[in-house]
């Protein structure tokens, strides 16, 4: 039987299969969509469109709710942050140390320049004396044939126990080495201390105001804050430090919450506890 005749007979019996329509395809769906485990891309796209096509007040309510939840998470994180306030430390050296650690501007200490100078001069003269003893040994050895040979050989020189009452040269060299290392260390430390910046007058005033209004130390032990010429600061120098000074003066003159909120971090405000009536700036 030919194909047209077969097709006609199938039409008469109603056995010809037809392709599903587009609406039927949508109802059939994919296996994963029917199982309910995942959404098909077309369904997700429709959900996004529905989200954007919602009324504006519903979108605003959703955005506010999302922002409120984000702020809640941030506040929870802040609540877990450990902030040490000055009042949490006992009065005395603990609170004074907490104040110095609360801001770089308050890390002010004495350089003890006079003490370093005295120690350097003392070590310098000790080395001078040992150097003179070494020269005496060398001149004594130079005057004899055996001594001249010892000047040319370290091994021969170390075999001797004494050089005319001055002791062995190796013992003298050990003393010189020890004193030289001590002298060099003092010299390098003094150089580093000289390189430190002097604290600005506003930082010195802040330190003195704190120590006077909150007497953590006895009179003799807080007197270092008034040794102006010997003070150094651990705060590194910055090109725009004049801006910091201007801001601090504004905070002191116009002591309001808005300026503190803009220019001070929450941690600094809580840790320093800058109280009106007790000027720190």
Description:
This protein is mainly alpha-helical and 281 residues long. It has 14 helices and two strands; from the N terminus they run H-H-H-H-H-H-E-H-H-H-H-H-E-H-H-H. Strands 1-2 form a two-stranded antiparallel sheet. The protein starts with a helix and ends in a 9-residue tail after the last helix.
Write the layout of secondary structure elements.
Elements: H1 3-13, H2 22-28, H3 31-35, H4 41-52, H5 56-80, H6 93-102, E1 108-110, H7 113-142, H8 145-152, H9 154-158, H10 169-195, H11 201-213, E2 231-233, H12 241-253, H13 257-263, H14 266-272
Helix pairs in contact: 7-8, 7-10
User: Structural class per helix/strand content?
Assistant: mainly alpha
**How helical, in percent, are the residues?**
55-70%
Major beta sheet, specifics?
2 strands, antiparallel
Averaged pLDDT:
74
Strand order, biggest sheet? Answer: 1-2
Strand content: under 5%
Q: How many β-strand stretches?
A: 2
Give the N-to-C terminal Cα separation.
109 Å
């Amino acid at each position: 039987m030919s194909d047209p005749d077969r097709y006609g007979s199938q039409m008469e019996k109603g056995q010809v299969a037809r392709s599903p329509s587009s609406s039927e395809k949508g109802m059939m769906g994919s296996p994963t969509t029917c199982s309910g485990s995942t959404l098909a891309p077309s369904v997700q796209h429709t959900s996004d469109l529905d989200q954007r096509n919602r009324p504006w007040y519903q979108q605003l309510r959703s955005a506010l709710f999302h922002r409120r939840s984000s702020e809640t998470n941030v506040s929870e994180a802040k609540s877990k942050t450990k902030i040490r306030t000055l009042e949490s430390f006992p009065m005395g050296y603990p609170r004074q140390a907490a104040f110095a650690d609360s801001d770089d501007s308050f890390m002010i200490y004495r350089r003890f320049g006079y003490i370093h100078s005295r120690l350097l001069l003392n070590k310098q003269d000790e080395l001078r004396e040992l150097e003179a003893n070494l020269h005496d040994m060398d001149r004594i050895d130079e005057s004899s044939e055996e001594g001249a040979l010892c000047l040319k050989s370290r091994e021969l020189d170390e075999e001797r126990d004494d050089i005319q009452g001055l002791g062995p040269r190796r013992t003298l060299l050990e003393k010189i080495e020890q004193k030289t290392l001590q002298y060099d260390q003092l010299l390098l430390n003094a150089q580093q201390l000289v390189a430190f910046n002097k604290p600005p007058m506003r930082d010195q005033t802040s330190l003195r105001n704190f120590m006077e209004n909150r007497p953590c130390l006895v009179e003799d032990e807080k007197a270092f804050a008034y040794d102006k010429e010997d003070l150094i600061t651990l705060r590194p120098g910055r090109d725009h430090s004049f801006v910091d000074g201007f801001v601090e003066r504004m905070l002191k003159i116009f002591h309001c919450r808005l300026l503190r909120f803009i220019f001070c971090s929450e941690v600094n405000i809580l840790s320093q506890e800058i109280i009106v009536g007790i000027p720190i700036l």
